[in-house]
Design goal:
The protein is mainly alpha-helical. 78% of the residues lie in helices and 0% in strands. Helix 14 (292-310) packs antiparallel against helix 16 (336-346). The longest helix is centred in the middle third of the chain and has 33 residues, at 220-252.
Length: 412
C-alpha cells in the first residue's frame, strides 16, 4: 500500500497560534509520565536491604523496565497502534495504567513481584513516549527539531526526577519516591486527556496493516535514521543506569560515610541525567539551523570521547571528573530528539507512529545488552574498560548519519 501524501494546511506560512501552549502541555506530561522509569533505581538501597538483593538483582529492577518497554513498543509497532488509535487516548490510558503498576510497587512482598511490576510499568510506558513525539510533530513543521528537543528534554529531567526526590525526601520514607512519581504520571494522563488536541499538521489516520513494519524497514532513509538512533542508544541508557554506581564508587573511594556517599552520588547522578534536558533543547535549535545529521554527529563524537575517558578517572580530582561527567550527560542525549524528528520528516507519512515505535523498540532492546555488558565489565575489570566499550555505539551512529546526510543531499 503506497504512502499517503502529506497534506500541509491551507496556509503553511501561518504558524498555529496554540503550538507553544500544546508544546508546554506535552513537555509537562512527558516529564511527569516518564518519572516512573528510575523509581526502583533511586530507591535501590531500600529494596536491597528489604529483600537482601545482590547487585545483579538490583540492576534487574531497572532492566525489567527496559525489557517491558521493548515488549510494549514491539507489540505497538506490529499492531500499528500509534497510527490506528488516537494518540491522545493511547497516551492517557497508558500513563494511567503505568501509574497504577508503579504504585503497586508499594505493596510488593518479594523481588519477583517487584520485577513483574517493573516489567509491566515499562510495557505501559511504550504508550507514553512515542505518541508524545508524534503529537508534538502535529503542531510543528518549522522548528520541529526544537519542539521535539524540548519534549525529550522534559522526558530526560523526568527520568532524573526520582533521584532528586530521593535526595530531598528519601529520609522521610523511600516509598515517597514511588508514591509521588505515580501521582505525577496520573496527572500526566489527565492533562493530555482533558486538554490536548492534534495540530494542523496531523498525520493521516490509517487502517491496520500487517506489512506496515516491513514497509518502514524497507524505506532506506528511515532505516538509516533508525541506525543512527541504535548507535546513540547503545551508549545512552547504560550511562544513565550506571552513572549513579560510578558516582557511588567515586565518592566512596574518598572515605566518606555511607550517608555522605549516598547524597553526593544521588545529586551527581541527577545532575548528569538532568543536564541532558538542556542539551536536548539547545541541540534542537542548532539542528533546525544547521541540519539534524550534522548535530547528531557532533553530539555522538562528544559523548563517545567522554565515554572513552571518564571511566579511567576514578582516582582523579572532582574538579576534573564532575565537569566531564556533566559534559557527557549534556551531549549523550542532545541528539536523541533529532533521530525522532528525522523519522517524522523522512518516514512514510501514514506510518510515522509505527516508525517511531519501531525505532524506539529496537533502540531499547539494544540497551538491555549494553547495560548488562557494561555492568559486568565494570564489576570484573573496572569502569575504564566498561565505559570505553560504550563509545562503539556513537562510532556506528556517526557512520549512519553521514550516509543519511549524503543521501538527502543527493535527493535534494
Amino acid at each position: 500500500m503506497p504512502s499517503a501524501p502529506f497534506q500541509p494546511p491551507a496556509n503553511p506560512a501561518r504558524l498555529p497560534p496554540a503550538r507553544w501552549r500544546m508544546l508546554a502541555l506535552l513537555a509537562c506530561a512527558e516529564l511527569l509520565g516518564m518519572s516512573l522509569w528510575f523509581t526502583a533505581s533511586a530507591t535501590a538501597d531500600h529494596f536491597r536491604q528489604a529483600w537482601s538483593l545482590s547487585p545483579g538483582q538490583v540492576g534487574g529492577l531497572t532492566t525489567a523496565v527496559q525489557l517491558g518497554f521493548v515488549a510494549g513498543t514491539a507489540i505497538a509497532a506490529l499492531l500499528n497502534v500509534a497510527d490506528v488509535l488516537p494518540a491522545r487516548w493511547f497516551f492517557s490510558l497508558s500513563a494511567l495504567a503505568a501509574a497504577t503498576c508503579n504504585f503497586l510497587l508499594l505493596e510488593a512482598t518479594s523481588f519477583e513481584s517487584a520485577l513483574a511490576l517493573r516489567f509491566a510499568t515499562g510495557l505501559l510506558l511504550a504508550g507514553v513516549y512515542p505518541p508524545a513525539l508524534k503529537m508534538t510533530a502535529t503542531w510543528f513543521r518549522a522548528g520541529r527539531g526544537l519542539a521535539i528537543g524540548i519534549v525529550v528534554g522534559a522526558l530526560t529531567v523526568g527520568k532524573a526526577a526520582p533521584y532528586l526526590v530521593h535526595v530531598l525526601f528519601g529520609s522521610v520514607h523511600p516509598h515517597f519516591v514511588i508514591g509521588s512519581t505515580s501521582a505525577g504520571a496520573l496527572a500526566a494522563a489527565l492533562l493530555v486527556l482533558s486538554a490536548y488536541r492534534d495540530g494542523p499538521y496531523a498525520f493521516p489516520p490509517r487502517p491496520f496493516e500487517w506489512s506496515l513494519v516491513a514497509r518502514v524497514i524497507r524505506h532506506r532513509e528511515t532505516r538509516l535514521a533508525i541506525g543512527g538512533y541504535l548507535g546513540h542508544m547503545w551508549e545512552l541508557y547504560a550511562c544513565w543506569t550506571l552513572i549513579a554506581l560510578f558516582c557511588h564508587d567515586y565518592f566512596a573511594a574518598r572515605g566518606l560515610d555511607d550517608a555522605g556517599v549516598a547524597v553526593r552520588a544521588g545529586s551527581a547522578a541527577f545532575s548528569v541525567i538532568a543536564i541532558g534536558g538542556v542539551g536536548s533543547v539547545l541541540a534542537g535549535q542548532w539542528a533546525d539551523r544547521l541540519g539534524r545529521e550534522r548535530v547528531t554527529i557532533w553530539a555522538m563524537a562528544t559523548s563517545g570521547a567522554c565515554a572513552l575517558v571518564l571511566g579511567w578517572l576514578v582516582a582523579a580530582p572532582s574538579w576534573l571528573v564532575l565537569p566531564l561527567a556533566l559534559v557527557w550527560g549534556f551531549a549523550i542525549v542532545a541528539d536523541s530528539a533529532q533521530f525522532s524528528a528525522l523519522v517524522t520528516e523522512v518516514g512514510p507519512a501514514d506510518a510515522v507512529g509505527t516508525a517511531l515505535t519501531l525505532q524506539t523498540s529496537l533502540g531499547f532492546a539494544l540497551t538491555a545488552i549494553s547495560i548488562w555488558l557494561t555492568a559486568e565489565l565494570a564489576a570484573r575489570v573496572g569502569w575504564g574498560v566498561a565505559f570505553s566499550l560504550l563509545a562503539i555505539g556513537p562510532l556506528f551512529g556517526i557512520r549512519a548519519m553521514a550516509r543519511l546526510r549524503r543521501l538527502r543531499r543527493q535527493v535534494a
